[in-house]
Amino acid sequence: MLLNPNSDTAASFDRPLQLLHACHGKLMHQCGTLRNLVDHLNQHGSDGQAQQAAQAVLRYFTTAALLHHQDEEEDLFPALRATVPAGDTHMGALLADLEAAHIVLETQWQALQPLLQQLAEGTGTELPAEQVEAFVMGYFAHIAVEEKELLPLAEYLLKPDQLAEMGQRMAARRT
């Protein structure tokens, strides 16, 4: 089963849905780091730990998170659209909502990125809690929908050859 947290099967490009699931865990971890950074700044200011945390969050969201969204938008979503029976409006609406959420998250990230860059360089001191919380909660809500609806549907609908092709494309994106 795809979403079994006790599964011994490691995420890999041979199991692209499991890889997307694993990435969700990493996204949530980085969102937690971002939240903790706000608290750290309030208590300790922009010290070396704050700079390191900002660097880690920047690195993750400008590489792995970006690739994750591309995996979904360029591979998973089109593969699902190709398998949906005519007249099924639920899948179309679900994918449209998820794509719209990607746009919102990207917009929020573009507003946070320069602040994190300044913190990472030791020149910034602020990270608005409301802005961070909106971004984090947006990601948590988005991931919840993907985990509850999208990935189980993908596991049910996509055939092994579609998954193999998806995994190859995801791997190629990272080379």
From TrEMBL:
Could you name the domain of life of the organism this protein comes from?
Bacteria
The molecule here is called Hemerythrin domain-containing protein
Q: Which intervals hold domain Hemerythrin-like?
A: 16-154
Entry-linked InterPro entries: Hemerythrin-like
